[in-house]
Amino acid sequence: MSARAAAAVRGGGVEGSWPTTPKERSWRPLAVFGVAVSTAVATWCFLIGGYVAYYLPAGSGTLAMIAGGLVGILLIFFALVPAATRYGVDSVASTKPQLGERGSYVALLIAYVTLIGWNTVLLIFLGRAAAEVLIALGVAGEGARDVLVVAFGLVGVVAVWALLRGGPERMRNVGPWIATSVILLGIWIFVLLLTEVGWSNIVAAEPSAASPDKLWNYTTGFELLVVSALSWWPYVGGMARQASGGVRRAMWPALIGLSLPLSLVSVIGLFAGLAVPESAGDPTTFLVELGGVGSAVPALLFIVLANVGTVMVGLYAVSLGIRQIPAVQRRMSWSGTLLLSLLPVAAIVVAIPNYFFDNIGTLLAFMGVAFAPMCGMQIVDYYFLRRQRLDVRALFLSGRGYRYWGGVNPAGVLALASGFATYLFLLDPVEYTSRSPYEYLSASLPSAVVAGLVFYVVTRLLVIPSGLGGYRDASATADAERELATSRS
Amino acid sequence: MSVDRDELDVRLAEVADDAARAETMLPRDYLLVGLFTLALPAVLLVVGWYL
């Protein structure tokens, strides 16, 4: 293949919205695991754990968080990984069968807002850590903190853009190193808490804003981790489409890499939130005080490094999403798309860094409301209606099977709406006030189940009888492939 | 037909051909994933409740 042709292929597949071909899927299980861990193990884990510390003590909080992380990844895995590894599609493209060609722009919008949100949180966090380093070393005074946070946040924006301009290969190479660094950082913070605060004090610490209802607190701790894991939705398709060798090779690296590190590092945030309640899990607020300048500075630099890695993964995913818009795919370079994805982040970092950072709970809530129904709908469609067969041509060529009515599938719209309504009925995601049976069922799981059921019923009653959506073709293809497999064996 | 469209057609044919032959998860895989992401959390939640 000529250099020009190779560049064109890269432009369409690995760095574009077109599906990756089997040859382009170059990530082996270890690379998938490394990227999964570096996606999950971000400094946001400390903030998530700090949030759980409002409601649960160390012992029950630890187990509820591990359980929540695993259940959240279950939804994400079945919604995305089998389809993404088989067809080389990213998260947004994988919603076209459910939402329709134009309806999938809803998924794009949700993913875009989510990724912009997380990238902004991480870059402000990066700015805070870098500012803390300079203040701890006496290079800058306390009064310069806000300016430094903004300045270093912007430096982070430029660094991430420069690193990712060369394509996702950089992400694969950098990811495992960053994951290792963050895990070491987490271990160091844990040791610091043990030596300076003491295990018995951490275990005995009471949550700072617990409800009188023990079951409600327990469910909320679980729910927060389910929601956090669901927020990987935009990342996971972009990761899985690069995995070589199909779903069975990518399965365990993705499942383990995305779930356990999230929960375990978040548990350190839980301990920090219990030990230093005013920190809300944010290590930049207590590292210097607890560890002294000599050990805090390397730890803060680890935070800077880790956040750069995670923003790279997020930026790659959001840029792929934007390239679903045909005009962007045709006219804008990869580098330009990256800049377009970073502009809103830079604007927030400059305009409202502290306000944004202090309201992370609202961002988390938004993700639960959005992604739980999305996952429920995708799982039901892929497994129970399409028998694991998609029409890859209809995913990328307009006017084919996923056109539905005017480019929108009403089954998908109704499913999402019913899932949103279910979540909001059970749990007000901003105030964290709830209605029964939230304390028994949580909010994300019922929301996913309701969305899946509504999608199934409307598809059976309306879409399939209309001959739309390619369901008959999917069924015929599945039967033909099964017969072929039987005859071969 | 544009060059872009030609490239896309070639790419889609390659992906579709590979997908038709792709290995899917086996029943044993579903069982293990279920144990890891449903049974294990259930046990953890029960134990955590009594801590």
| Helix-and-strand structural type of chain A | mainly alpha
Q: How helix-rich are the residues of chain A, as a percent range?
A: over 70%
Q: Based on Cα principal axes, name the global outline of chain A.
A: globular
State the helical fraction of chain B.
over 70%
Strand order of the largest sheet of chain A: 1-2
Alpha carbon gyration radius of chain B: 22 Å
Task: Give a description of the structure.
The complex is a heterodimer of chains A (489) and B (51). With 489 residues, chain A is mainly alpha-helical. Chain A contains 22 helices and 2 strands. Chain A has helices spanning 3-12, 29-40, 44-52, 58-87, 96-99, 104-136, 145-164, 169-196, 199-204, 214-230, 233-240, 247-275, 287-322, 326-331, 334-351, 353-357, 360-385, 392-396, 410-426, 438-441, 444-463, 471-488, and strands at 427-428, 433-434. In chain A, a hairpin with a 4-residue loop joins strand 1 (427-428) and strand 2 (433-434). Chain A is globular and about 70 Å long. By secondary structure, chain B is mainly α. Chain B has helices at residues 3-21, 27-49. The mean pLDDT of chain B is 89. At the A-B interface, helix 1, helix 4, helix 12 and helix 18 of A face helix 1 and helix 2 of B.
